[in-house]
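#struct-queue
[09:14] JT: dropping the first one here, sequence first, then the structure tokens:
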Amino acid sequence: MMKTIRRWLALALAVSMGLGLLTLPAAADADPRGGELELLSYNVHGLPIFWEDYNPWEDSQLISAFFRDSGYDFIGVQEDFNCHAEIAGAIEGAYPYQTVHQGVVPVGDGLGVFSKTQIYNQRNVPWEQTFGVFSDGSDELTPKGFVHVLARLEAPGAYVHIYVLHADAVYGDAGSLAARADNYRQLAADIAQYPGEPLLVMGDFNGYYGEIEPFLTETSLRDTSLELYSAGHGDSIDHILARDGMGVSFVTLESKNLWIQTAPGGVIAAEYLAEGARDLSDHAAKYAKLAWTYEGPENGVWGVEGSVTQTPQWSIELLWRQVETFFAKLRLLLLESFRLLREQVV
């Protein structure tokens, strides 16, 4: 009798242990501590201009459909000016968290973040130095700069700073070179507010690796392309940069230039322009896939949980800033026009 009882107890214990082991993966899945992120930096070329094969409103709808179906986790855009409704409206379901659009030319900066996870504390900061009104990229006609948000990763307590920027246009004149160098200096100074914290920086730097190398050294950021290839391979004026910190670590799995282009059957992204295809921007996008892990506490370490401000919506302050910017740019246009007129008269 005792042997029978012991046999049943042993069987019950084995079954309970087996069930416990079966439940372990489910518990781990419910508390992820890492994963993969796909990032895209893209100049959407949303300027209110037309030429033979370029209609920004129609092209923006094609870009929007591509974004919607892409599955990227974070998309950073530049030159999202007059066609924002065409891009953002169609992807709201796929990207429920979006930065607030700052307006059309000449009051908006054209910068934005589309995210699958929550983003907080949006800041749009214009450059202190730009160059060119009617030439050299006309950078002084819009308040180009950078947008910064804090984004939540899919692990309790894990966040990352995201910056999206658009630097002074890629011209070799002394004025543009000086302006870009000052852009990088200003961005590095802003990043210095977050020592030891994780960063993802992406955008149209308008500078190749050699030009941004001092900026990388100062900020301890890594160029995702250079982590996989030597300098020059896959180099472009767009970059995606990463930095570890606060228990968040990144490893680059892929990094490449992508031409987002029309092709038979729809819009595709490829490393080269296909024969007969039409690029939807004036240069390639930058894509990166990163593996990330988090080894940190689930609360409190950032000092943001429970006290963060959700991405702000349209406000009187934004409208006032747009009005101020409009009249500042109008004054700049008039002064430059009078200067050129005087030069012609003389």
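[09:21] JT: and here's the second one, same format:
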Amino acid sequence: MPLREETIRLQNPAIAALPRLVEQLTFLHVSKARLIQDETGVVALMEENEQPLRVPLPTASVAAVLLGPGCSITTAAMSTIAKHGTALLWVGSDGSRTHCWTYSLTSSARWAEAQAALWADPIRRKEVAVAMYEKRFGGLPPGGTVTLRRLRGLEGQRMKRLYKALADKHRIKFRRDYDPNDFGSGDPINQALSAANAALYGIALAAITALGCHPGLGFVHSGSIAAFVHDIADLYKADTSIPAAFQASHSAEPALQARRLTRDAFLRAGILERAVRDIQDLLKAGLAHTAPAEGLLRDDHGYVPGGTNYASQAGDEAGTSSLQIAGDLAFDIERDDQPLEHPWRP
């Protein structure tokens, strides 16, 4: 991705000056570089033809930065990226595997609470899973009982047809076969698919964390810290990363070309805006269970304002005062001649 040579002052940005997530570029992949903070913003220090190179990174305008092997980053650069709300992922060779990621900070837990409320309710959780399949299919299939087993089977058939059509179009033999621990052992199409899908996971993560949702609370996928990331990415694979990977499979550098074509597909399809809109649509039923404002404390029958000392409410309905409760606790501790047990100690 070509970057402008001019530098833009990005340090300590005002919130109002930052672009909305849906207006940002999709992702930036960096390998073999040291990311630092200077007076202009975040800069990548690297070498090209054995010559030192300084490349300004527009982190305020990128939804996700994928750091590949050979990268390091300073605390100051990390702080600036966090202020910009940019998702940062540490990935393996050619983006084939995500090792870890950072959360972008949001001031509200509204969508996280909505997600958790739906995820914790088995009936609502299934409803969201069905809605995800519905978005993939463009509607629910006619006839028969709608079960997750049936939808999962129909999705498998859909993907088989897609892979066959793309393999025939690009005249390649295809079988999804790759080793996540050995990227180079895969054939060109499998390398391209791994790289393209990794970029899509980065975009899905950026949208999820920008809303404050949890990437591990999935509805179709389960048991992985990236379950919800896979849920959201699967909504767009058939339209973006998979076709781009097949198109890149004949390139001399299939992974690099796949990332470029996937980025272009993201822009054409408006994936960031679609992802934010789809997440909100899928989780909106849970908003009824969220706090009405920020900074509240949970009460027995609703919420009370935070930032307040409620010592006067420590007594029970029988009129026991907080002083009496504290005295009883102190007495119990003083008369116990055995040391307190701490379950977290061996």
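[09:30] RK: nice, looked through the second one.
[09:31] RK: Residues 25 and 117 are 32 Å apart (CA to CA).
[09:31] JT: good to know. The longest strand covers residues 41-48.
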